[in-house]
Design goal:
This protein has about 475 residues and is mainly α. It has helices at about 5, 20-40, 50, 70-75, 85, 90-100, 115-130, 140-170, 170-185, 200-220, 230-245, 255-265, 270, 275-305, 325-330, 345-365, 375-380, 385-415, 425, 430-445, 455-475; strands at about 445-450, 450-455. A hairpin with a 2-residue loop joins strand 1 (about 445-450) and strand 2. Pfam families: Mannosyl_trans2.
Length: about 475
């Protein structure tokens, strides 16, 4: 046994692999974030969580006797150090309440239909077992705990899926190293406590990474002709992206991948002609794109049936494309092109600046991949032949360019249209910037700015960790940014 392997053993325990390392790091980091939230001062100026849990009138820690809430209270004993309660802030209040009693008010349709339905389904299953109940005045306690559990489990699995996706994208031993680094970076993402609270970010990241994994597997060069299994994977990836879109509307941007590929198929027709394989792939791309679109259309159709069709139609019902989501974002949340560009919001743009810059730089790196010598050095190593190496490099470059487009579009939309501060958390579900940063970490590259060399990877990773730690305390105390 080599000295390196001997150093990696501890007290005779088996050698740790990358997945065990990822799991250990994940547990340590999550424990730190939850500890910070638990020790935060309290609810601050906003008592929405106390009102949600039925403790806003007299601030009693327990529901009134005989209301049926005692068993639920046993499942979530709350005090000034109740960490589940500390995670119910901002949008999490909406997610928990909607999951408890369904969509009631029009503005609630801004919050992901897919996540609330999943929480409802699991909560009702738990309630049927008799383990706990959230009825009787105790508030949506089961829904809160189920939402927190979903966020933690989804975050862990998204880290694992990102590890395997990275190995699929980048061949050789260096690819394994990049996979480990990227997975750890996703663990300490600046989204921080939002991946522990009952928010949509963790579940979206899992579904988005899974969709990209299946999509990449359907296109991975295998040295033989395209099979129907490849096309089936394409359709399956569209279904997964569709589910991601029900969780967060920006999942719709994944449709760009299929449009990009379909355009390529059409451009190749004069050269390759129309064959069975080409026609089958084009059909699979079309079906996959439709499935992504259904992720947006299905909740809109459900809302249309609920609000439209009588003399009391809401204004959005009469629009050419009736969308309750677009109406709510515009009417209630004032989301629109350049609307957020006010002097009072300048601090929020400053907070979002690092994330926007990172997403922009990494997208540019991926889009100009053919000129990237670093990518050439890393990708393709460990393959059996020079031909395979060239093929892997070209494949990786093509994929990176496609994956960078939705990320770049999202960054531009966040800068010009969205409430810009959310980019720090919604960026957690996109892979390209993790890969860019993983390359910088593995190569320890320096960037010269103002005649001074800076270790950019060290600066970015330190910013991520500090931001997540500070954010955890602010979030639990009901303080911005959110």
């Amino acid at each position: 046994m080599t000295q390196q392997r001997q150093r990696r053993r501890w007290n005779g325990l088996p050698e740790w692999g990358p997945l065990q390392t990822i799991l250990l790091f994940f547990v340590i980091w999550k424990t730190l974030i939850l500890l910070i939230a638990t020790l935060s001062p309290g609810p601050g100026y906003d008592t929405s969580t106390l009102l949600l849990l039925g403790r806003g009138d007299d601030d009693r820690p327990n529901p009134p006797p005989g209301t049926g809430g005692e068993r639920a209270q046993e499942w979530l004993p709350c005090s000034s150090f109740c960490w589940p309660e500390k995670l119910v802030r901002w949008d999490a209040i909406y997610f928990a309440k909607i999951a408890e009693r369904g969509y009631l008010f029009e503005q609630e349709w801004a919050f992901g239909w897919g996540l609330t339905r999943l929480i409802t389904l699991l909560s009702r299953g738990i309630a049927r077992t008799g383990i706990a109940t959230s009825k009787g005045g105790a508030g949506p306690l089961i829904e809160i705990n189920v939402g927190i559990a979903i966020s933690h489990v989804a975050h862990l699995f998204s880290v694992v899926v990102l590890y395997h996706l990275t190995k699929l994208m980048f061949a050789g031993e260096k690819g394994k190293k990049l996979a480990l680094i990227a997975s750890i970076l996703h663990t300490i993402t600046p989204a921080g406590i939002f991946l522990s609270a009952p928010y949509a970010e963790s579940l979206f990241a899992l579904l988005n990474f899974a969709g990209h994994f299946i999509y990449t597997a359907s296109l991975t060069p295998n040295g033989r002709g395209r099979s129907w299994e490849n096309d089936l994977c394409l359709v399956l990836s569209g279904a997964v992206f569709g589910l991601a879109t029900t969780v967060r509307s920006n999942g719709l941007l994944n449709g760009i991948l299929y449009l990009y590929d379909l355009t390529g198929e059409i451009r190749s027709l004069p050269r390759d002609g129309v064959g069975v394989a080409n026609a089958r792939k084009a059909a699979a791309l079309g079906v996959a794109g439709i499935l992504v679109g259904l992720g947006t259309a299905t909740p809109q159709w459900i809302a249309y049936l609920a609000y439209c069709g009588d003399e009391n139609d809401r204004p959005w019902c009469k629009q050419a494309v009736p969308s309750i989501y677009a109406w709510v974002q515009d009417h209630y949340w004032n989301v629109g092109f350049m609307r957020y560009w006010t002097f009072s919001n300048l601090p929020l743009f400053l907070l979002a600046g690092p994330a926007l810059l990172i997403m922009g730089l990494s997208a540019a790196w991926a889009l100009y991949g053919p000129k990237n010598r670093l990518l050439t050095r890393v990708t393709g190593q460990g393959t059996p032949s020079a031909t395979d190496a060239i093929r892997d490099v070209n494949f990786t470059r093509d994929q990176l360019q496609k994956f960078a487009i939705p990320q770049l579009v999202l960054a531009v939309l966040a800068l010009t249209t969205y409430h810009v501060q959310i980019i720090t958390r919604i960026s957690s579900g996109y892979m390209v910037w993790y890969w860019w940063l993983a390359f910088l970490v593995s190569e320890e590259q320096h960037v010269e700015i103002f005649r001074r060399k800076w270790n950019l990877s060290r600066i970015v990773t330190r910013w991520m960790m500090v931001y997540a730690v500070v954010q955890g305390g602010l979030f639990a105390s009901f303080l911005p940014p959110a």
